[in-house]
Design goal:
The complex is a heterodimer of chains A (about 120) and B (about 110). Helix content of chain A is about 0%, strand content about 45%. Chain A contains no helices and eleven strands. Chain B is globular. Chain B has no helices and eleven strands. The chains are: A mainly beta (about 120), B mainly beta (about 110).
């Protein structure tokens, strides 16, 4: 089966600019996750979707970050305006189901964002 | 608070030596623990989960609730084991499980 797809793979922007990342999960996976991984740290969950509804966005900086998952398939994550501390790898992952079960998460290749 | 601690940023061993990557967690409840691995230029992927009690690529991990640890072990390291290893805890949030990752340990196996 095809894996989780993400684009772009790399992005360089100046601070205060906006940027958007795209994710296409594995077909049939109901749950989609966006993680932020800052250099030297483990991935940190930003937002979790179950189908097209948000189930956890407690660590999403909502003043500048937004995400949507239209039709319960693809998802976009946007940052506006970007700050230097947003430089990180943004990982998308999907799993078959979420709910109360810790199903295996499948990760995409990530988008490396550099804010200058 | 739910937290995962991996005390070593880098573990360097020679081929054939035993390996133990340490992981300690903080969780008020019954935890689900995982090890994820990222090989060079590859995606983050699941290595093993404690509930399955499997040995994957010669690696095992035992959940020790008394010591709140989930150390990853392999008796004889191979060069192809060189990678970044992340311990993760599945914690409940509003009825939905989310993964909390440690900072990771880089394993370098030298010939």
């Amino acid at each position: 089966e095809a894996g989780v797809a993400q684009s772009p793979r790399y992005k360089i922007i100046e601070k205060r600019q906006s940027v958007a990342f795209w994710c296409n999960p594995i077909s049939g996976h109901a749950t989609l996750y966006w993680y932020q991984q800052i250099l030297g740290q483990g991935p940190k969950l930003l937002i979790q979707f179950q189908n097209n509804g948000v189930v956890d966005d407690s660590q999403l900086p909502k003043d500048r970050f937004s995400a949507e998952r239209l039709k319960g398939v693809d998802s976009t994550l946007k940052i506006q305006p970007a700050k230097l501390e947003d430089s990180a790898v943004y990982l998308c992952a999907s799993s078959l189901l979420g709910g109360g079960q810790p199903y295996e998460q499948y990760f995409g290749p990530g988008t490396r964002l550099t804010v200058t | 608070a739910q937290r995962v601690t991996q005390p070593e940023k880098l573990l360097s061993v020679f081929k054939g030596a035993p390996v133990e990557l340490k992981c300690n967690y903080s969780y008020s409840g019954s935890p689900e623990l995982f090890w994820y691995v990222q090989y060079s230029r590859q995606r983050l992927q699941l290595l093993l989960r404690h509930i399955s009690r499997e040995s994957i690529k010669g690696f095992t991990a035992d959940l020790n609730k008394g010591e709140t640890s989930f150390h990853l072990k392999k008796p004889f390291a191979q060069e192809e084991d060189s990678a970044m290893y992340y311990c993760a805890l599945s914690g409940s949030s509003g009825g939905y499980n989310k993964l909390i990752f440690g900072a990771g340990t880089r394993l370098a196996v030298h010939p």
